[in-house]
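Troubleshooting log. The previous structure file for this entry was overwritten by mistake, so regenerating from the original sequence record. Sequence copied from the archived sheet and checked twice against the printout by T.R.
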Amino acid sequence: MKRDDIDIILINQNIAEQIRHVIDSDNDNPLPAVLEIPSKDHPYDPTKDSVLRRAKGLYSAEDMR
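Regenerated output below.
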């Protein structure tokens, strides 16, 4: 499906680490959404996930009450 308002890139987290400077360079633009997924050979580390790091910046502990 092709839509102008939706762009999603799925990438293994270990590959994303190799190009982290590219992924993190355009944080102001929500598109494309880069979703980091685990691989069979490398465990998933949520502290390195760019989407989770940005989401944590949007909410505080008080917002979750």
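The helical segments are 13-18, 20-23, 50-58. Archived copy saved in two places this time.
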